[in-house]
Each structure stands twice: as structure tokens, then as C-alpha cells.
Design a protein that fits this description.
single chain, about 100 residues, mainly alpha, Helix Hairpins, 4 helices, about 0% strand
């Protein structure tokens, strides 16, 4: 039988994968994908804990995280489009180089 521990382990593994993606990626679009994986891991944890305690507050927090993720995607993709038009690349090394 699948219990809350299994969901929390899955959430921890997904969060670790997303965190490693944030640390290792050089492309800004991949950084946004990695943060989305991390936010979804938190949603799984909130829903599992809320279900375990029989309370809807975990699911309400998960909906709040989904709303934050949606706003992050909307603003982030707009900024990515502007950066791509300006630099022609989404590589962090190209964007962070100073031009005098």
C-alpha cells in the first residue's frame, strides 16, 4: 500500500532533481523548467500531507503554489523573449558578459 512516506520520498527526489537542474544549467529556459519541477515537488508534498491529516489546507497551499508558478512563467517567458531578442541567445555566459 502506498503511504504518505512514498509521496514524500517522491517529492524529495523531484525537488533534488530540480535543484540540481538549477545548479547545473546554463540556459535560462532550462532554469525555468527546473524551478517548475521544484514547485511541483512541493505541490506533491503539500497534497500528501494534507491528505494524511484529512485537512484541505495542504491542497489550498498547493493551489497557491500553482498560482505563483503561473505568474512566474508569465513574467519569466516575457523576460526570456526580451533577452533573446537583445542577445540572440539564452546562455547565461553570453548574457552575463560585460560589454563596454
Amino acid at each position: 500500500m502506498i503511504g504518505v512516506n512514498h509521496y514524500l520520498i517522491l517529492s524529495g527526489l523531484l525537488f533534488s532533481i530540480g535543484f540540481m537542474g538549477v545548479l547545473r544549467r546554463k540556459n535560462l529556459l532550462m532554469l525555468f523548467f527546473a524551478t517548475e519541477v521544484m514547485l511541483n515537488a512541493v505541490n506533491i508534498a503539500f497534497a500528501a500531507i494534507g491528505s494524511y491529516y484529512g485537512d484541505l489546507s495542504g491542497q489550498m497551499f498547493a493551489f497557491f503554489v500553482i498560482a505563483v508558478a503561473a505568474s512566474e512563467v508569465a513574467v519569466g517567458l516575457g523576460l526570456l523573449i526580451l533577452l533573446y531578442k537583445k542577445y540572440g541567445s539564452l546562455d547565461l555566459d553570453v548574457i552575463s558578459s560585460m560589454k563596454g
